[in-house]
Design goal:
With 100 residues, this protein is an alpha+beta fold. It has one domain: Conserved Hypothetical Protein Mth637, Chain: A. It has two helices and six strands. Strands 1, 2, 3, 4, 5 and 6 form a six-stranded mixed beta sheet that branches. The longest helix is centred in the middle third of the chain and has 14 residues. It is globular, with a radius of gyration of 12 Å. The two termini are 14 Å apart. 25% of the residues are buried. The model has no long low-confidence stretch (mean pLDDT 94).
Length: 100
């Protein structure tokens, strides 16, 4: 999982998103793509899935929604998010809790 999270300021996290699912869920770490896979309930239209992703991660990682930004992949299932206010170790710890 550490390959998907870059310790910079802000911390960058690489994700692979599947939309229009039954529930929001952090599924697993894909070691070949080096991305964390996440399911999102919202459809990928009019930026709704990105907003739902930010809301979901804000809750799960205890980060204010304004401190989560889509750095790349706004219209793609492969995204990189910038997370402000937390360090890499804190984010890894919270993500691992969600994967159990």
């Amino acid at each position: 999982m550490k390959d998907a999270i870059k310790n910079q300021n802000p911390v960058l996290i690489d994700l692979s998103i599947s939309t229009n699912k039954n529930q929001n869920k952090i599924k697993k770490y894909n070691k070949w793509r080096k991305r964390i896979e996440i399911d999102i309930k919202e459809k990928a239209s009019q930026n709704r899935a990105n907003q739902e992703l930010k809301n979901f991660l804000s809750e799960k990682l205890d980060i204010p929604i304004d401190d989560i930004r889509v750095k790349s992949g706004r219209k793609s299932s492969k995204k990189t998010l910038a997370l402000y206010g937390k360090n890499k170790q804190e984010i890894i710890k919270k993500l691992k809790k969600q994967l159990k």
